[in-house]
Amino acid sequence: MRRAILGLSVLVACHTASPGPVPVRWGNLPLVAPESLGFDNLRLDSVVVYLQTQVDSGFPGAVVAVGRHGRLGLLAAVGHYAANDGRPVEPATIYDLASLTKVIALTTECILLVDQGKLDLDAPVQRYLPEFRGPMKDSVRIRHLLTHSAGLAADLPLWDSTRTRAAALAMVDTSALLSPPGTQYVYSDLSAIVLMQVVERITGRPFDQVLADDVFEPLGMTATRFVPPKSWRHHIAPTEVDTFFRHRLLIGEVHDESAARLGGVSGNAGLFSNAPDLARFASWLLDARAGRGITPGGRRLGASRPWPDSSLVRRFTTKQDIPPGSSRALGWDTPSGRSSGGSNPPADAFGHTGYTGTSVWLYPTQDLFIILLTNRVNPTRSNVKILQVRPRVADLVFAAIR
Known about the structure:
Order of helices and strands: HHEEEEHHHHHHHEEEHEHHEEEH
Strand order of the largest sheet: 3-2-1-11-10-9
Number of helices: 13
Radius of gyration: 20 Å
Helix content: 25-40%
Shape: globular
Structural class: alpha+beta
């Protein structure tokens, strides 16, 4: 009975005449009986049962989506919108994706640009962005930005030190390297901000428009965008009560301070989306990685959808070992010991997390994806229980595979 209710709730959320996102062009991924995808029904239900136990301790609310072979076996919502908002979360509730922006938006666009021959992973960043200047910066390659090994700092206080987008970008571009390129791993929002500018220079379009044109619209991701309009506010889970920068509860406004200084459009954060849209994206990416969008004769299926070369997608989602020992792929991350993707994930798994409590993990061998969206920073970022929740969810999903 729960399956039928969940399926109906998704249809209602996406097709009623509410002020939220319009219906996707091709509809959502079909929600089917878990048994047809190789899951044990009761074991997969344990994912929802577990998440319900974390409501009000790990997060106010959450949405989980689990899919295989282009279909959903589980799409469920638990909890409520916020600590002071008792509305029940729905499967189509929209969340601030935080650093998932780096992979859903920035990395995906880089894959498409490399596939088109417009971006060279081994080219110096200065070829595309001359403003990126300073000692050793002529040695920074695009590949270094994608593997967080450029030598840039993790972040800068852009929100406090600059007043305009132009000033913030100039501060990033002229910031000093902390180590020679390729020698140290430092997870860096600055690398993503620099790479965003590279994308804008190559395409000649604003970053948000690039993604809307090249990825979100072709994939029918109509609940995915930067700077969501006020008409979406009722469908967006609030994030933190900001007590030191904006001094208000953030709803539909990017949580990340650096992205906020950049007007909500950045390569490091700023994207908003929901589980049905991300399920479409994950299914497409697994198909693209496996070459299912290209015929044996080399013809790319569905001209309206982006179908990059499968070997290129595999390269982007495979550990690069830059610097040696790093778990990073190109943009994406790969398992390293006990990771957010499970306590013992397959070697070819890749994924990413977002500071607000979001995560996406993909498992090519199983043709499987797990999406977890929460607003664990509501009302405060001091709650870090999500670090235990993510791997537990992944372990429960794998235990449900027959």
